[in-house]
TrEMBL record, chains A, B:
PANTHER family: RIBONUCLEASE J
Keyword hit for Metal-binding: yes
Keywords assigned: Exonuclease, Hydrolase, Metal-binding, Nuclease, RNA-binding, Zinc
One Pfam assignment: RMMBL
Protein name according to UniProt: Ribonuclease J
Taxonomic superkingdom: Bacteria
Lineage of source species: Bacteria, Pseudomonadati, Pseudomonadota, Alphaproteobacteria, Rhodobacterales
Domain Metallo-beta-lactamase: 18-206
InterPro entries for the chain: Metallo-B-lactamas (IPR001279), RibonucZ/Hydroxyglut_hydro (IPR036866), RMMBL (IPR011108), RNase_J_2 (IPR042173), RNase_J_b_CASP (IPR055132), RNase_J_C (IPR041636), RNase_J_CS (IPR001587)
Length: 557, 557
């Protein structure tokens, strides 16, 4: 009877770990009312996005349908879920709902981007219910690596959808709500059409470990270490900050938090009433007067980020403090794939100073915030969905999770970014594919990933840049000589002559031979000059540079 | 009585895995006769060396003492040991000694670089002995991940030095000589002053596994796989190529080798008589006609290199072949730290096609070529050196290895690149530090790592490039308007006006206000203009670009 349908469309996060943005729709085809779950960022890298500050999902599809969008729901305060709220809110202009801690972080994002923080509305966990058009949405607590992480139950006339959020099956997570199988079973009991489920750790076949298993090894480390201990972890991992601080405190060490993100996170967690019984901390100023063996610094920079506290300590002094032989540096963290080189640089710098560097290779000092395969299976069993849609993972993880679900008797489908899937029936059906992609925050402004700007930068980084200027008079005749400037290239050719002079000579020769037609035609002239530059440069130094040509034509006034 | 001394100086490889280059000297201070062991390369990356083709040790110190250099010794044919021989030989111009397989590869390097391959001289293993000034050098076979890997015994009047080369304690390495504890003990028996020892896997506390353990799992994979199997490993790992090919052959699969390095390595190994009983192979052309389930491709690109066969298959078709759902891709390899992102890209592309991707995470399909800690300890015990100098490792590994050696009763010292250590006495003594560093092969020419060329490229990659041209007449007055060209930046400012126009306006204003002194002074003018460009760009789009200014002054003829 009803022609209404329930659709799902990931605009980010499906095929990557990062920039999560999941759209749900319900209503007649093309007139569905919509909600967006999460609006996160991805981090840039020098190989594919040099100079870019943040990567975000391209929301054009949603922006064009803004009148149908009811709300933005944020599951938790990690950057890949909340990071783009400030920068992209003005494109959507609907209320943002989140639980208290997450909402506080989201408001800071709005403020940073010059948006109104009042657009972010705090919602309590279930049974508190948001009525959003045809959707009834409840937040349910899950254990994760930061406080107040949540999944969401989305009830629609076509049935119940459960979005797991990022979760782990940890019954003793330290800070934040424990994994609660009873509650999850309760959610499943009323019948669930679709479970959208975290896929990050589907490849890991071991049962996950609890945050609580770290207490003893970290306490021992704080007692046994000879000199200063410096520990890094994600600033948002408030439970870990507490585990580290308590262990240090009990071992007679003063605790000093360093790095902007660390201070911001602990401040917000304190304001939200989450960070209770945290040991007293001292300022970096005060830390300078504490004997090294009585000190723990907790610093930012677990991923080797160049501007974070850890990298600054690796280079020398940070806020008046520095590391020495006999000190210990602890990575209470994992290295996100792709950051190995940056982390390695920090590790090696410390090793050169004689600092003992400890990481999680013996599995003593870190646990993941994501459910491993056995815990995912337990989640499937608790929620008992008709269909399972893997989210939050690279393609390989999504495929593995879908395979797993099918083997366990569920309907499943890999739904990559941009795929519109109809969830109304007994199995997911691909009904459309929409254009999606990435946009970059570059400095203070947005640019498109595909508009050639970053491509030009990469070309300059690989090939160097040759810049050619020449002046033509009213009769298209060369006035003076052409000039070539080179940046990022060897200044001399194979014979030792300056490369720019060699290029200039070849350009002059080319121009002397060029016909009147070429000289009058900007495009032709540019092409010809560019070809000459690339040919000469290849011949002289074996490089094909990026070439920019500026032809100035003097006109009669 | 004698004032002669035995010195050791790493120019590369100590503090990094890559570009090995170890100098030994014997004689009166400042007049030591020298030998160089290994001359390898390191690979570049986009973050720190974009566009660079290869990274090599800076040999200036050795070049200035070329008259004292007896020879270059190459332990084995991996790129980080032999890769720079062709490009840097002309700086040293002494004979290059290596065993047969290594010598063949070294000759190809010489040829590629336009040098005389006859400078490479083949040497047999011990007891064959090279007399090089005060040095008597013997090659001894070690097990590693390619054929004819060797350590060297260097006998000097001050005692015996043993350089382990890259080794693993594998008694069944498949192809190549097995680990031979008897022989090593024999070397140690006559008394060893110093062991320079591979440190790559010192962090790994498990005993190493043999190449032979891979035979069964790989054979099973070849039998069980439904579709085509494509496997990648280092081309030089000839034992692995054989393990893969034999397993496939026995499972009724035809074997096709793909990728330039793969063909080159197997050809050299065949010519050297090392690759015996290799199953017949077919051409890519012929492979097209073989049913998928009867085919194994062995391809280059285990590190996700963009131009290698694996990455091309990930993007689509390579030599007429492509991957499909149901096929299997096997990484019979490990990912070198820093390459995770590139490998991840390939893995995800295959996953998207529905290809099953297998790697070594279950430790079934790859073993390392380097000795783990227990095997290093066994090596110490066999050689029984007075002192142990860790080589071939990042700082962290060198420190760990030195700590281990000291705990086990040896003298030890971390000797980083550029440190000159006197080995004559009972313990190593730091006697000098020399300037060392890296040089880059960039296209067809060498550039210095520190000469600013690559720094400029990185700056353009991060900040974009603004190029300003202006013309001044004979009286230092502006002729026409200043032009600004932007590359790698958002073309419009915050108000939507073209960025280059905004810059040009600000430049014109600046020039109209500039005094005659500034206008006459190129440096002052450049500084002022650069500051204006960076200020405006920061204000408009939040970026600080690289700026190049060209001021053309028209002169009276």
């Amino acid at each position: 009877m009803s022609k209404d349908r329930l659709i799902y469309l990931p605009l980010g996060g499906a095929g990557e770990v990062g920039m999560n943005a999941y759209v749900f729709g319900y209503g007649p085809k093309g007139r569905e009312r919509l909600i967006l779950v999460d609006l996160g960022v991805t981090f840039s890298d020098m190989a594919s996005s040099p100079g870019v500050d943040l990567i975000m999902p391209d929301l054009r599809w949603l922006e064009e349908r803004r009148d149908r969008l009811e709300a933005i729901i944020i599951t938790h305060a990690h950057e890949d879920h909340v990071g783009a709220v400030g920068q992209l809110w003005h494109k959507l202009r609907v209320p943002v709902y989140a639980r208290d801690f997450t909402a506080r972080i989201a408001r800071l994002k709005m403020q940073d981007a010059g948006q109104d923080p009042e657009q972010v509305i705090t919602v309590g966990k279930a049974p508190e219910t948001l009525e959003l058009g045809p959707f009834r949405v409840q937040f349910f607590p899950v254990a994760h690596s930061l406080p107040e992480a949540s999944g969401v139950v989305i009830d629609t006339p076509a049935g119940r959808v459960v979005h797991s959020g990022d979760f782990k099956a940890d019954r003793t997570p330290g800070v934040g709500e424990p994994h609660d199988p009873e509650m999850l079973a309760q959610i499943g009991r009323s019948g669930v059409k679709a479970l959208l489920c975290d896929s990050t750790n589907v490849m890991n076949t071991h049962a996950g470990r609890s945050e609580a298993t770290l207490t003893a090894p970290i306490a021992q480390l704080m007692r046994d270490a000879r000199g200063m201990v410096v520990a890094t972890t994600f600033a948002s991992n408030v439970a870990r900050l507490k585990t580290l601080a308590v262990a240090a405190h009990e071992a007679g060490r003063s605790v000093c938090l360093m790095g902007r993100a660390m201070l911001r996170m602990t401040q917000v967690a304190t304001e939200a009433g989450i960070l209770k019984d945290f040991p007293p901390t001292i300022s970096p100023e005060a830390a300078k007067d504490v004997p090294r063996e009585k000190l723990l610094l907790i610093v930012t920079g677990s991923q080797g980020e160049g501007r974070a506290a850890s990298a600054q300590l690796a280079r020398g002094t940070y806020m008046g403090l520095n590391m020495k032989e006999g000190d210990t540096f602890l990575f209470s963290s994992m290295t996100i794939p792709g950051n190995e080189r940056e982390v390695g640089r920090v590790v090696n710098a410390f090793a050169r100073m004689g600092v003992d560097v400890l990481d999680n290779s013996a599995r003593l000092y870190h646990v993941s915030g994501h459910a491993n395969r056995p815990d995912l299976e337990a989640m499937h069993d608790l929620i008992q969905p008709q269909m399972l849609i893997p989210v939050h993972g690279e393609h390989r993880m999504l495929h593995e999770h879908a395979k797993l679900a099918i083997a366990r008797g569920m309907q499943s489908m890999v739904v990559p970014n941009g795929a519109v899937v109809d969830l109304t029936g007994a199995a997911p059906v691909l009904v459309d594919e929409v254009e999606t992609g990435r946009v970059y925050l570059d400095g203070s402004r947005m640019i498109g990933a595909m508009d050639g700007i970053v491509r030009d930068r990469i070309r300059m980084a690989i090939g160097g840049h040759v810049f050619v200027t020449l002046i033509l008079d009213e009769d298209d005749e060369l006035l003076g000589d052409p000039w070539a400037e080179i940046v990022g290239l060897r200044p001399t050719g194979k014979g030792g002559q300056p490369l720019n002079e060699i290029i200039e000579e070849e350009l002059a020769q080319y121009l002397s031979r060029a016909g009147a037609k070429t000289m009058a035609d900007d495009d032709k002239l540019n092409d010809g000059l560019r070809r000459v530059v690339r040919q000469v440069t290849m011949e002289e130094i074996g490089k094909k540079p990026e070439v920019t040509i500026v032809v100035s034509r003097l006109m009669n006034d």
